[in-house]
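Input (Putative DUF4284 family protein):
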Amino acid sequence: MEPENEYDRAHLWLLLTPLDCDEFDDYVESPEWTDEQLEGVAPEPEPEGFTQDAGMDDYDPDFAHFQYCGLNTPVEDLFEETDLSEDERPRIISSCLENGITHATAVCLLSDSSHSDIPFTDRNGLVYIGEFDMD
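Output:
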């Protein structure tokens, strides 16, 4: 089934770095913008954490889903609480296993069609898996 619009698909990253839940929350927190930055009279905040490792300047939190799964969660158990299409999940799991990813700490999803990257690119333990259909 073809997605109806650009937000019917999401980019998927898995975090392989062993962070606890609080460290993960800090890692995915979008930088705060000051009034001066919003008005364009001060430079934008520097990307950090997830934003930097995903190769982006910024992202819209309204189109992001971050799920902490716990240390060393098997890939087969990562996607139950996501909106990824159930039809896509076997393909995602198979691709992960074929590329040596058996466990992860967290799932990061972003519904933003403007992002592009090479699947299975690892940046500081954040691995881009690809773009997939959502339910």
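The longest helix spans residues 89-98.
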